[in-house]
Amino acid sequence: MRVRSRTVFMGNVNSPCDAYQFGEAEDYMVEVSALETPANLAASITNNDVALTWNAPSNTQYLLGYRMYRDDEDISGLITEVTYDDLGLDYGTYIYYVIAEYSIGNSAPSNSVQVIISPVGLSHSEKQIVELYPNPVVDVLHLNVSEGVEIQDVVLVDILGQYSNAKLENNSISLTHMADGIYFIKIKTSIGTYTHRIIKR
Questions:
Q1: What is the CATH number of the domain that holds 146?
Q2: What whole-number distance in Å separates Cα of residue 58 and Cα of residue 40?
Q3: Which of 33, 102, 34, 35 is nearest to 62 (CA)?
Q4: What is the model's pLDDT at position 125?
Q5: Is 30 a member of any domain?
Q6: Which of 58, 91, 117 is the endpoint of a domain?
Q7: Which of 123, 138, 191, 193 is the most exposed place for a label (fewest CB within 10 A)?
Q8: pTM of the predicted model, to two decimals?
Q9: What are phi and psi of 124, to 5 degrees?
Q10: For 77-126, what is each residue's pLDDT tens digit?
């Protein structure tokens, strides 16, 4: 996008680069482009540790560094490397994304990755401790947990980080009062906290 400025004096538009009694009128062109987003965020898991890597923007002009987000919360502060290690996590499901911070603003979030930290030795089906359906959801969201797991608390968070009431009844949550959009649902269970991304329509 180009932005052109012009000088108006006493109702008259002045020609660029001309001299006047009050000074000179100059013509400026300012190039404004979208701030490039980090790409190809990926995660690898070792026990309860998550190693995250991503590709730097091709244009690093004005780039200050990066911020890593877990479940929509900045967990890294400003960092300059294209790697980040999130260590010692509790059992649960986590969603990560990274943004690039520039001196003139922040980029959009990168692609997101979901990570599940589960006890060693559990089968793949057993690792799905908490299942949600349907997703996307229109009115009622149903929760299904593994045998022996107890749900202790449920919290809904929108993409702006604002918390909403979530009343759990018979392992179901009514979302009829919620505005359409993307939410993160944090489910605290007897063996850990799990976070899922849901879409309300």
A1: 2.60.40
A2: 13
A3: 102
A4: 41
A5: no
A6: 117
A7: 123
A8: 0.52
A9: -60, -45
A10: 999 999 999 999 887 788 999 999 999 999 999 999 988 886 654 433 44
Cis ω on the peptide bond leading into residue 119 (within 30° of 0)? no
If one counts the domains in the chain, the total is: 2
Tracing tokens 């309300």 back to the chain, one arrives at: 200
Whether the CA torsion 50, 55, 60, 62 is positive or negative: it is negative
Structural domain that includes position 81: 39-117
DSSP of 114-161: EEEE--TT--HHHH--EEEESSSBSSEEEEEE-TT--EEEEEEEETTS
The answer to the question of residue 69 being in a domain is yes
Tokens 């202790």 belong to residue: 152
Q: Could you say which of 70, 94, 117 is where a domain stops? A: 117
How many Å is the Cα radius of gyration of the chain? 24
State how far the Cα of 156 lies from the Cα of 133, in Å rounded to an integer. Answer: 15
CB 41 within 8 A of CB 51: no
